[in-house]
Specification:
The protein is mainly alpha-helical. The chain is about 50% helix and about 10% strand. The protein has a domain at about 200-300: Orthogonal Bundle (DNA Binding (I), subunit A). It contains 8 helices and 6 strands, in the order H-E-E-H-E-E-H-H-H-E-E-H-H-H. It is rod-shaped and about 145 Å long. The protein starts with about 25 loop residues before the first helix and ends in a 5-residue tail after the last helix. About 10% of the residues are buried.
């Protein structure tokens, strides 16, 4: 006996939540998809604008039709009510078996006492004439139908991010953060290229000569403290008594004593960092990487 194998349930793609973990290529991919969505949304708004305008006009016209019909119904109900009242009053004036010897009138095949039947009949005729004219002037109550508005473009899309298919909700994308992350990645690439060029062109100087040259920059300590009044690495106290001049990119790895590669830090950070790169040092001390980079960025330093 053959059994049909059950299909495996479709797995839902995870949602993209943290833009800061994406590479520059993936960030640009997200930006391009978001811009395409914005273009579709603008085209959609342009397309539905005349439909919305027409529907608004139709709704106003339909409201006028309903109001006109309501007014007619109220007027007609009053006339019908008055007809019923007069008809009921006229019934009381019907001629009995012994009333045929007195004066009477005939109306619609029935006989009524002339008083007050004559007045009631005349008034009833007048009211029925008005009701007939009202019926002939009954307004058209057929309303025009509204046009359907097409659905908006989908705000979600699946993209291949880092080899994984992720679902992206464009309405939750922080465009300012996205642009800032792309700018940071591009700046970091430019800095890496600049570092490589410096490494290729550096002169063969000894570490002692480099340290001596660094003495010329110590006068810049107070200028740095006026911009960032703390140690750029640990955010601790930085004073004339505990400052050291650190090469952000180590001399042992080709770092030069240029302003963009020199920064005043506390003696403890300088001692702990030693010949490590900044990235290795940050991992060692477990500090917030973005805060350190932000302080160095304010001081216009390279890392």
């Amino acid at each position: 006996m053959w059994y049909r194998a059950k299909k495996a349930p479709k797995t839902e793609s995870p949602q993209l939540e943290d833009l800061s973990k994406l590479s520059l290529v993936d960030l640009k991919k997200v930006k391009k998809a978001h811009e395409a969505y914005i273009d579709r949304e603008e085209e959609y708004q342009d397309d539905i604008a005349p439909i919305i305008a027409r529907n608004n006009r139709i709704e106003q016209e339909n409201k006028q039709i309903r109001d006109s019909h309501t007014q007619w119904m109220q007027k007609d109900n009053l006339l019908q009510k008055e007809i019923s009242t007069l008809t009921y009053a006229l019934q009381a004036c019907k001629v009995g078996l012994f009333d045929f010897f007195s004066d009477y009138i005939e109306y619609e095949g029935k006989f009524y006492k002339i008083t007050p039947g004559n007045n009631l009949v005349e008034k009833l005729k007048e009211i029925k004439k008005l009701a007939h004219l009202s019926f002939l002037s009954k307004p058209n109550c057929s309303a025009e139908h509204l046009d359907l508005i097409p659905p908006p473009p989908k705000a979600e899309k699946k993209l291949k991010i880092g080899g994984v298919t992720l679902k992206i909700n464009f309405n939750s994308i922080d465009t300012d953060l996205l642009d800032d992350l792309i700018e940071r990645h591009e700046l970091r690439l430019e800095n890496e290229k600049a570092k490589l060029n410096h490494l290729k062109s550096r002169a063969a100087t000894s570490e002692n000569e480099t340290r001596q040259q660094a003495q010329k920059f110590r006068r810049l300590l107070h200028k740095q403290l006026a911009i960032v009044p703390c140690c750029p690495y640990c955010a601790g106290s930085l004073t004339d008594k505990n400052y050291h001049l650190d090469h952000i990119y180590p001399v042992s790895r080709g770092g030069k004593s240029y302003l963009y590669n020199l920064v005043f830090v506390c003696s403890k950070c300088n001692s702990d960092k030693g010949a490590m790169t900044l990235q290795s040092f940050i991992l060692k001390i477990g500090r917030n990487e973005q805060e350190i980079y932000e302080r160095l960025k304010i001081l216009k330093k390279d890392w």
